Amino acid sequence: MSITPHGSMRSHAGGELRAEHADETVTIAGWVDTRRDHGGVAFLDLRDRSGIVQVVADPESSDALEAAHRVRSEWVIRVTGTVRTRPEGMRNPNLGTGDIEVAATSIEVLSEAATPPFPVEDRIEVSEELRLTHRYVDLRRPRMGEILKLRSAATSAIRRVMDANGFLDVETPILTRATPEGARDFLVPSRLQPGESYALPQSPQLFKQLLMVAGVERYYQIARCFRDENLRADRQPEFTQLDIELSFGDQEDVIGLVEELLASVWRETLGVQVEAPFPRLTYAEAMERFGSDKPDLRIDGLELAHLDEVFADTEVGVFKGVLGDGGSVVALALPSGGDMTRRAFDELVEWAKRRGAKGLAWGVVEEDGTLRSPLSKFMSEAEIAGVIATTGASAGDAIFFGAGPRTFARDLMGALRNHLAAERDLIGEGFAFCWVVDAPMFEPVEDRGEAVGSTAWTPVHHPFTAPTPEWIDRFEEAPGEALSNAYDVVCNGYELGGGSIRIHDREVQERVFRFLGISDEDAQERFGFLLRGLAHGAPPHGGIALGVDRIVMLLADATNIRDVIAFPKTQSGACLLTDAPAGYEPQALADVGLRLAPKPVKD
Ligand code: ASP
User: Fold this and answer.
1) What is the pLDDT, as a whole number, of residue 1?
2) Which of 294, 300, 468, 542 is deepest in the core (most CB within 10 A)?
3) Interval between CA 498 and ligand 1 midpoint (Å)
4) Single residue among 83, 111, 139 that ends a domain in this structure
């Protein structure tokens, strides 16, 4: 990405100088990357956003040489000089500017710099803590600069597609009311309305729906969202989502738009051609085959096998107990897994235990069709044959068995699929997109851990998601089976985004609230504005939100979400650069009616 215009203090971006500029007098500016001072002549590598260029100072310009002796790493300087081609043999093919150098006639120091906390280069061995504390230096490193450019290229591609499809970019409030997306709210107590508090939006969900009621028809926003959750490697308390909503369309409109959008982002940033339409799986199928609602389809095969029928009358103690309690036995065959050492199997058992499993049984299929396994003496021949047939394993393959409560066993084996694929290098190259559709409306609170209302059920997506037409009139009768008009887009095992067709009928919305245990009074208090909006002519509508940070992580091949955000927070929600969150003056707190609990004493 070129830097044009360069700003009035320079004539060119140094990193963009080439042999065609030879003999031109140029003025460039940037940071001193490295300095090689040979006394009579000094070489400075000057870095700006566009790259690095070599500056030479020699006794012909004694002022420039004197300045070159004085400057240090990361000082900001402005250089005027002549571009000259480097002699043959002195060229550097690894540098865009490697054919030329700038012979300085003047070097002006614009800003001195303290000794950098770490070298500005990609291969550094310093803690992330130090990098985040001095993020302004960290972001000068080439890799970090590339990620910032990639992110900007991605959002600009997004805007082009949204514009071309007639979407309006509308901003929604940051100081607002709770929007339930299954996390805790960040609260901002009000000074002007003592005793009351704003919430930061977990998403613009309700505003975008009201924009549909308002007749905007097609809305998008690259929106900051806030969720107070326990953080993991791919989560941040504030993150960016591409938020989309459209009226008078259905699931196919949203899916078609998102496929066009992602294909164009991948093409414009990486030059990669993404095949659309993406494969679609139902939620039930994804769970059954891959033990995950975000399956990594780069992994060829490695599908789960369900063995409840095979072991229906088993004498294998653990399986019998689990099946008797309504649980299930799920297996996974690993091609050629028989080459694993005993120790490798033991490590997998430990891995499963760390995930809360009681253990992980395993076996290896022998040439003669028997199973070498600590469990095989308890299995009947018919069971062994059933296991081999259901898993599709052949001689030399390993088979793993996960047993436990239904969801637990399935999730465990889904995670094992990813774990084994990574360990055994079975993850294919490139990007594997898919849609997961027909998710259930509700799931037991105990599986999700967050309730929206007071019943044992909670929405899988959010409470504004429409049931599929066949469930609209009767989702209350079989809440565990009712399907929703929701869809998730997945890439390489990451959920890139999710959305749904919404409830646009006020009565259906009220029934969903009631079913979730939100009383009419409570619904009025929390969502009265939505219900009122729905009563004023709501068009059928639906939408989706895509995680921009996650998209950039995939594009940049980053494994850490902090690497794709300019100023991220740590796992404990701290900004090391600014030292936020911070204590406040008692008076400032008193103004908003707050007294903070004392800091816990660390031992
Ligand atoms: N508001 C939803 C979310 O943030 C996305 C959507 O339903 O459009 O997950």
Assistant:
1) 64
2) 542
3) 6
4) 111
Residue among 227, 229, 243 whose CB has most ligand 1 atoms within 8 A, to mutate? 243
Same domain, 423 and 348: yes
**Closest residue CA from atom 8 of ligand 1:** 544
Nearest ligand 1 atom, CA 486: 7
Q: What is the pTM of this model?
A: 0.94
Query: For the segment 434-456, what is each residue's pLDDT rounded down to a tens digit?
Result: 999 999 999 988 776 677 777 88
| Least confidently predicted of 138-142, 412-416, 457-461 | 457-461
Residue 50 above 70 pLDDT? yes
Whether 81 and 102 have beta carbons less than 8 Å apart is answered as yes
Residue 62 in any domain: the answer is: yes
**DSSP code string of 96-107:** TTTTEEEEEEEE
Q: Considering the domain boundaries, does residue 236 fall inside one?
A: yes
Same domain, 163 and 228: yes
* Peptide bond preceding 581 in cis form (omega within 30 of 0): yes
CA 525 to chain centre: 33
Contact present, 414 and 364 (Cβ < 8 Å): no
Taking CA atoms, 234 is separated from 130, 230, 452, 495, 564, in Å, by 20, 11, 24, 11, 10
Query: Which of 172, 202, 205 best tests ligand 1's pocket when mutated (most atoms within 8 Å of CB)?
Result: 205
Alpha carbon separation from 359 to 153, 288, 353, 412, 451 (Å, rounded): 47, 21, 6, 11, 31
Nearest CA to ligand 1 atom 4: 203
Same domain, 555 and 453: yes
Ligand 1 and 498: CB distance under 6 A: yes
Cβ-count burial of 274 within 10 angstroms (0-12 exposed, 13-18 middle, 19+ buried)? Answer: middle
> Band of the pLDDT at 193, cuts 50, 70, 90?
very high
Q: Does the beta carbon of 499 sit less than 6 angstroms from any atom of ligand 1?
A: yes
Ligand 1 pocket test, pick from 209, 241, 484 with the greatest ligand atom count within 8 Å of Cβ, gives 241
Domain housing 39: 14-111
